[in-house]
Amino acid sequence: MKVTTMTASPSRTPARAPALLAALGSALMVAGAFGFQAAGYPPCHLCWLQRYPHFVAAALGLVLLVVPSRWIMALGGLAALTTAGLGLYHTGVEQGWWQGPTSCTSTGIGGLSVDDLMAQINAAPLVQCDVVQWQLLGLSMASWNALLSLGLAALWLVAFRRS
User: Fold this and answer.
1) Which partner from 38, 74, 91, 112 sits 20 to 30 angstroms from 149, CA to CA?
2) What pTM was computed for the model?
């Protein structure tokens, strides 16, 4: 007796569920970021950079609804890992572990003339990347983004493996 098995497509299996949950998570992360912005916490340059992969992951979730593909799931996982990496980098900048982009971090003022100091002040962005604006349980928004995004990447990976 010959037993045959049917291979279900990702559209007919629960494979997409974790990916769609991850995409929704990215959409909620962006909504939360805009909520903080509306509450008076404007984003710095690195904060904005962390949002872009979430935009991509949320859009990939929409595409996944129409085109069930494991490669879309892989790209979603890559987007989540990218924003997690940016969050870890931003955390390091905030903690002083390494220098951030000169366009959004403070520098020393020793040895500057009054004119040079005024030029530095006038060229400084409104929000500096190395200043923690808000934290919960000792973790900044960048740190929370990194941790939550690693969880989202795990969901994308689960979906990829199931498909």
Assistant:
1) 38
2) 0.75
CA separation for the pair 132, 91 (Å, rounded): 9
Please answer whether residues 26 and 79 qualify as being in contact, where contact means their C-beta atoms are separated by less than 8 angstroms.
yes
Tens-place pLDDT, residues 83-139 = 999 999 999 998 988 887 876 665 555 666 777 767 766 665 567 777 778 888 988
- Assign 3-class secondary structure to 84-136: HHHHHHHHHHHHCCCCCCCCCCCCCCCCCCHHHHHHHHHHCCCCCCCCCCCEE
Name the DSSP class of 41: -
Which pLDDT does position 135 carry in this prediction? Answer: 82
CA-based nearest residue to 22, from 90, 67, 75, 69:
75
Residue type at 133 in one-letter notation: Q
Three-state DSSP class for residue 139: strand
**Among candidates 19, 142, 43, 38, which has minimal Cα distance to 83?**
142
Region for 157 from its dihedrals, namely left if φ exceeds 0, alpha if ψ lies in -120 to 50, beta otherwise: alpha
